[in-house]
């Protein structure tokens, strides 16, 4: 050991026992757990939507929502990995049974659009909490996520617009279904 070696006790450990550069405020950690749960609920909900379309021969919509379900699971995983990187333990909360009853294709897409908007609001709340806690690492983590979330809203608004335009006419709905199958 030379004189410039660090005393190992100066490195903080987080709740998980991993090295931690900066402690996190409890309120921010709790909000991140809740957001992670929201992503897992979205994944379950999109899976249910995928099945609803598969039962109605709309395989393009079904495959689009299956893909969305998997990407929400990826988002949840991204939040879990971030918490671990910050020395936190990840608490997985209960997830709700998804809705499986809709009266029309338009009501499924409206539901999906509203879920995306709710996720965006939750991300904005996390962003403000991180700013108030001067937890810049969290703001940097959230920046690209918020940007891609805004793109998701746009994507669902576009699909909703097309479904409304189709006005429940099967030929038009089959064209949209076909477009979604190539995504
Ligand atoms: Fe997501």
TrEMBL record:
Keywords: Cytoplasm, Iron, Iron storage, Metal-binding, Oxidoreductase. Fe cation binds at residues 39, 72, 75, 116, 149. It is an enzyme of class 1 (oxidoreductase). Its main location: cytoplasm. It holds the Pfam family Ferritin. It is found in: Cytoplasm. Residues 22-167 form the Ferritin-like diiron domain. Transmembrane segments: none annotated. GO terms for biological process: intracellular iron ion homeostasis; iron ion transport. Its EC number is 1.16.3.2. GO terms for cellular component: cytoplasm. It catalyses: 4 Fe(2+) + O2 + 6 H2O = 4 iron(III) oxide-hydroxide + 12 H(+). InterPro entries: Ferritin, Ferritin-like, Ferritin-like_diiron, Ferritin-like_SF, Ferritin_DPS_dom, Ferritin_prok. One of its GO terms (molecular function) is ferric iron binding. Iron-storage protein. Belongs to the ferritin family. Prokaryotic subfamily. This is Ferritin.
């Amino acid at each position: 050991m030379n004189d410039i070696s660090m005393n190992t006790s100066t490195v903080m450990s987080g709740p998980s026992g991993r090295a931690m550069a900066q402690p996190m405020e409890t309120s921010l950690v709790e909000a991140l757990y809740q957001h992670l749960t929201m992503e897992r609920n979205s994944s379950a909900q999109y899976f249910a939507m995928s099945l609803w379309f598969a039962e109605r021969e709309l395989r393009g919509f079904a495959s689009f929502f299956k893909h969305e379900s998997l990407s929400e699971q990826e988002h949840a995983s991204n939040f879990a990995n971030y918490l671990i990187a910050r020395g936190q333990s990840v608490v997985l909360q209960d997830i709700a049974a998804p809705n499986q009853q809709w009266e029309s294709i338009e009501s499924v897409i409206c539901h999906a659009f509203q879920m995306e908007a709710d996720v965006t609001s939750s991300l904005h709340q996390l962003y403000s909490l991180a700013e108030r806690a001067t937890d810049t690492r969290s703001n940097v983590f959230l920046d690209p996520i918020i940007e891609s979330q805004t793109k998701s809203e746009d994507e669902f608004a576009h699909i909703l617009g097309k479904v409304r335009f189709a006005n429940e006419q099967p030929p038009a709905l089959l064209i949209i279904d076909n477009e979604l199958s190539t995504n």
